[in-house]
Structure formats: C-alpha cells, structure tokens
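In this supplementary section we document a worked example of the pipeline. Step one takes a protein sequence of length 569 as its only input; no multiple sequence alignment statistics are reported here. Step two produces a three-dimensional model, which step three serialises into structure tokens for compact storage. The input and output of this example are shown verbatim.
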Amino acid sequence: VDIHCNASCDYANHQGLPVPQWNFISVNYCGDTLTYSKVHQPTAQTTGWNGVSHCNNCFVLSKTASPNVVFPSDTVTYTITITTLNATAQTVNLTEYLPSGFQLMSTYPPGPNYLVPATGTKIITVRGFFNSPVTCENNYNRVKMITQLADTLWDSTCVQVNHLPCASNALVLRDGSRSSAIFGLLPVVNQKIYFEGTFYVDESLYLKNCAIIAAPGAKIVDVTSEPLTLDSTTITGCDTMWAGVDMSSVTLTNKIYLINHSAINDAEVAIRSGTHTIIGSSKSSLEDNIRGIFYPDISGSGSSYVTVLHVNSSRFGLKSAQLKPAFLPQSFYGDMPYSGIEMYDVRNAPIGDSSGYIPNYFNKLNFGILGTRSTISVSNTTMDNIRKSASYIIKSGRAISCAGVKSQLVTGDLKVNTSKGAVVISNSDIGIFTNYSNLEANNCIINNAWSGIVSRQCTDLLHTTVSSCNITARKFGINWVSNNGATQMLAMGNTISVMNSSDTSCAGISCQETISGGGDGNYIITDGNQVSIASSGYGILMRNVLAGQVTYNHVFQTGSISAMSTGIS
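The serialised model returned by step three reads:
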C-alpha cells in the first residue's frame, strides 16, 4: 500500500512547523492487528508486518491453459496453482472438471486430497489434446478446491480449438455426421469437404471431382450395403495421418470403388475390408498410407472372408518424401508404408486381373503384397524398392509374399503369371517368397534382388513351379529350403544371373534340406535353365537332398576361376 500526502494550507509559510507523526493500524485477512508509527522522513518506505502468518485458511486458487488457442491434436497443458499463506501445512480437496472432448496424454495426478505447504505454491499440471474444434465459451475447464475449514474456491479457464487451415472454404462435417442426412442419394460433385471425426456412410454415396480432407484421426465408416464410389476424388489427411475407410462394421455385402484417378492417401489403413466387402480400384492411388488394402486376421472370430478384390492400374507405397506425422494416439509406424495389400484368409484375390490396363505399381514398401492363408494371383504388376524397414518389428523387403500356417494345416496358394501383363520386380530384397504354400511363377522378371525367389516348407504334397523367369540377384536366384514332402519343386527354362564375386555361398539355384539323413523335396532342375555366376559360389547347389534331378541346364561362370566356384554341386 502506498500512501501519498500533501501539506495543507496550514503549513504554508510555517517552515518550523513539524510534520506530525503518522500512526497506521490495520487488521489483515486472518485477524492479526498490525501497527506502525513513523515521523515523516524523505523517501521513507516501511512495512508493519514481520512476515510471520497466523492464518490457517489463507489460499488463492488459479487455473490456466497453455496455449489457450490451438488446433485439434495440439498439446494443451492445464496448470492448477494453489498459493498459500498459512501458519502450517494444510490438506485440501481438489476436483477438476475437464471439458468433454479432452483426451489425456499424461497420467492424471493422484488425488483428490493434496498436502500444500504453509507458505508458497503447489502446482498440478494435466496434459492432453482435443480431437475436434470447439469455441472457448463451450470449452470451460473448472476446478474446485475445498479447504480444511470447508471454504470452497473455484477457478476456470477455457481453450479455443480452431479448425485447421485446410478446412477453409470447405463443407465441414461434424463428428458423427451421416451421409443420408448431409447428401441424401444425390451425387456429390465438385465439393471441398472436411470431416472432423467419424463420418458414417449409411446410403449409396457417389463422390465425383471432390477434394476431401480428414482431420487427425478421422475416419469413414461404411454401414450400408449400398456402394461408396470415389470418381476422380481424393481423400487426404490435413497435416497428419487419419484412420482411413472402415468397411468392417457390418456383415453385409458392402462395396467400395475407386475409379478415374481417385486417391486415398495419408491413412493408417486406406481400406479396411469387412468379411463380405467388394473392393475395386481402377486407375487410382492408395499411396502414403501405412497399409493400403487390409484384410485383418479374423481367424479367432469364427468368421471368414467372402469377398471380391479387383485391382488394376493402381499405385501403392510411398509417393511423398515422407509419411505425414501421426495423429494422437496413433501407434508407431516406420519410415515407409508397411504393406500395399495385406490379407488373411482371402481365397479370391486377383491382382492385375484385367486386360487393357497399365500395370499396377508398388514402390517403397516394407511388404508389397502380403498374404496369409490366402489364394492370390498377380499379373500386370510392377514393383520397385521393396526393402526391409528397420522401423518395423517384421522387417520384410518381400515384394510378393504368401504363407500358410503349418500348425493349422492351412496352406497358401500363389500364382505369378503374365496372363494379363508382365510382372516385373526391381531393386527389392526378395522378389517372391512362399512358406507352406503352393507357387506357380511363370515369365516373371526380377532385377537386382538379394534373393529372387525363396520357398520354404512346401511340404504335405504342396508344389512349386518356377518357369521361364528372368532373375538377376546378389545372393540366390532361386533359394529352396526345407521342402521335404513336396509333390514337386520344379525349375525349368529360367535365365538366372548371380553377380556377387566375393560371397562363396551364393548360388544360382539352391536346394537345401535340413532334416537328418536328407530330405526328398522332389527337386527337378531341368529343361534349359541358363545360370550365370560370378567368380565364386555355385551354379546349381543340392545339399542334403535325396534323389534330386538336374538335367539339361547351362551353367556359366564369369570373372576369374576360383577353387570355391562350382558349376553343379
């Protein structure tokens, strides 16, 4: 408290009149009486309190938010500050009323009782984020504190959550919106649309020449048997990933079609299939997604897929320099997409099955096509840069992979052929991989692979045929391991080059069994295979194999002759 006094007229021209003594008496909040007496002195600044409090119920409660203007998914920190001026430490009861839509990121502090110091401050923080925009006046966060003497104190603050900039000039669909209420049955043409959360497709919906932007973590959920069609339409994440299109909520035969250069980008899963979903992608893009088309493993549910898949002239993988940042609380993902097409228990999966289309293109993925307990055919498809990503638990690098599960006696079946167009795989770790699966690979081209074709556990009367393929590899052209009990492991008419001059274990065609006493995989290497190796390794290798047949092949060696180089072993 500053007190400013001016001399009155009585003091005019009376230089010897003394300035009177000032006596100050005050009573503070807690009832302490404070007194002080002072004769005027120039620049006097005084206090009448010794700093010792006799209070037992003196508190100030405040609540703040930082920052208080944000976008969805931005981190907000709420801070509760309790300031005390008491003789002893006190216990208070605290209740916080967080606004709806606020998602906690931090573990909420223990409570509701808190011991606060006699004098000083107690600070409690809560961190989280909002999923969707909301105005400040509709977004208050209140806190209530009850003291030991049953006094109640309140404070509050609010946060303004704005639309992301990419929602400007767009039709904004609120979380929970339904297509029937917004669009009816009419085609939606030339619209910019922003959806904040979950958007339900509950009637036939045709989107033509539309630009659709998804908020962080937003998703489209199909709940109808009527088709969802994207015609020259793109769906992208705003500045983070979004969840994707979920077709799995119903057991009906639902349908999704992408045509005429449509695109689904930046999704955790671009299309998640239901058990009866018909998926068609023609001349379209499913790039920059963690997974492109995904059939989740439902083997434990008692259900199975009765589905149809047609993919032609479509693109998968990484198109941008990098994937967009994650939405919260999205699971960790790697530096490239995990899979282009991934399926479990799908028994009808033709990829590139129609004539007259340019090839499908898969680029920069951990898996290109991944099938488990599935029947897959691949034609008219180009793959490039399918590499192991250290970011994922399963580090693959397999362009085309098909596996059964031997413990369940459920096999896979893979056909790679050129009936509708060439299959070309370049710059990938493994071109074609099978495990407990049939394989027919004909006329495929595999360039600069670590291993061109790998087959394991082709047992229980399964079969593998690789014919008329052109393979260039650094380790193995064909690598067959542990196939005892196969009906046939046949390689014929292939052209294989293994160009590794320093690895003595590499081979053009390698057949190896691991069981004691040798294994009979019915290996037949015949009919004009052309095998070239550099100055080390094997042309054709049979190891621990019973009754292998190697006939009518040509083995060439380039570079200097090495004692460790063998034509046929």
